[in-house]
Every structure is written in structure tokens, then in C-alpha cells.
Amino acid sequence: MTVRALVVDDSPVVRKAFRYHLAIYGVRGIDEAENAFQGMALFRERAPNLIILDLMMPESNGITSRELFDTIKRESPSTPIIIVSSIPYEKVRASFVGEGALDFIIKPFNQFSFDRARRKLSTIFPEFSSPRNR
Predict the structure, then answer these.
(1) How far apart are the C-alpha atoms of 98 and 4, rounded to whole Å?
(2) Residue-by-residue DSSP string for the chain
């Protein structure tokens, strides 16, 4: 299966970092959105099969990160969502994972913090089992 990813984060640096980490595992179809409103449009237009979603973004055109998460879970419940956040609280992480997020990564992240999510992704997408472009 070809992985089509959508990275929704208001930080261009974070989007670039995730693009890099995804490309290591051969993901080439990567769309980016800088807010939840753009993320909603790209989610519905492109139907990605992996979402990386920043939890702490300003509301845009009435859409919050939480609303985007809920919409994705309702409209495409099997699509894995990795939540990215600067909120290090276990209660928040447990809540999102309990509601269906595949993983919860605390910012700032690196190769090692991404690796837990990568291992989970490898059970869904074989591409994530071994790096392609180190």
C-alpha cells in the first residue's frame, strides 16, 4: 500500500521535520497544512491514509485541531492519526490515544521519539519496517 500522509502543523519547521522522517521510510505523497481548516480541506480532497496533527494550533475559520481530529475519526475511523503536541500531560495523551489516536508525540521531537510511532506504523504499513534513504 502506498502511504499518503497529511502533516497538519502551524510550524513550517515541524512540518519539514516530519516530511524528512516520513521520507526516510519511503513516503513520497506528503501534503502539508498550516492550520486545521486547511487540514480539513486536504483530508477530504486527498484522502490520506496517515495524518500527523498538531494539537496546539490557533483556530482557523472556526475549525480547531480537536474538531479536525473528531472529523477524521468519524469520517475515516481506520486512518491512523499521530498527535503532536507541546503539552506533556499524560492525561491528555491517554485521552487522545483512548479516542483512537495511534500515538502522541511530545514536541520537540527527534528520531528517537518518532521511533515509537514508527514501530506502530510498521504494523499498518510495511514501508515503515526499514529505512530507505538514510
Answers:
(1) 24
(2) ---EEEEE-S-HHHHHHHHHHHHHTT--EEEEESSHHHHHHHHHHH--SEEEEES----BTTB-HHHHHHHHHHH-TTS-EEEEES---HHHHHHHHHTT-SEEEESS--HHHHHHHHHHHHTT-GGGGS-S--
User: Which grid cell sits at 87?
Assistant: 503539552
**pTM summary value:** 0.93
Domain 4-127 adopts which CATH fold?
Rossmann fold (3.40.50)
Task: Scan for cell 500522509, then name that residue.
Answer: 5
In one letter, which amino acid is 22?
L
CB neighbours of residue 2 within 10 Å: 10
pLDDT digits (tens, 9 = 90+) for 24-64: 888 989 999 999 999 999 999 999 999 999 999 999 999 99
